[in-house]
């Protein structure tokens, strides 16, 4: 289930909740990239950046023009999960598979627990 609170999209799954900031021009069915916080029932949280291969290609092409990353010869992004299909459903499916395979710990960086009282 995908809900929108005006600032964040929240994808609710039986195993996790994924929070994605709302970016101009990005909709749940067509988003080809997103930054996500994945929160589990035990309060642990992980971070992922999702991109399609087209987004990676666009970034590398931009870097050719700007000179970054040796003029576009490489691309890196921490906690990157490359998805074949656009949309939040594709991103959530990747998270579900990463959880079931046990690869979530290697693929998505661990975040500090979210303390709702503002203290860590």
Please, could you describe this protein's structure?
This protein is α+β, with helices and mostly antiparallel strands and 120 residues long. It has one domain. 31% of the residues lie in helices and 31% in strands. It contains four helices and seven strands. The chain has helices spanning 53-66, 68-72, 88-101, 104-107, and strands at residues 2-4, 8-12, 16-21, 33-40, 45-52, 80-83, 109-111. Strands 1, 2, 3, 4, 5, 6 and 7 form a seven-stranded mixed β-sheet that branches. A hairpin with a 4-residue loop joins strand 4 (33-40) and strand 5 (45-52). The radius of gyration is 15 Å and the shape is globular. The model has no long low-confidence stretch (mean pLDDT 94).
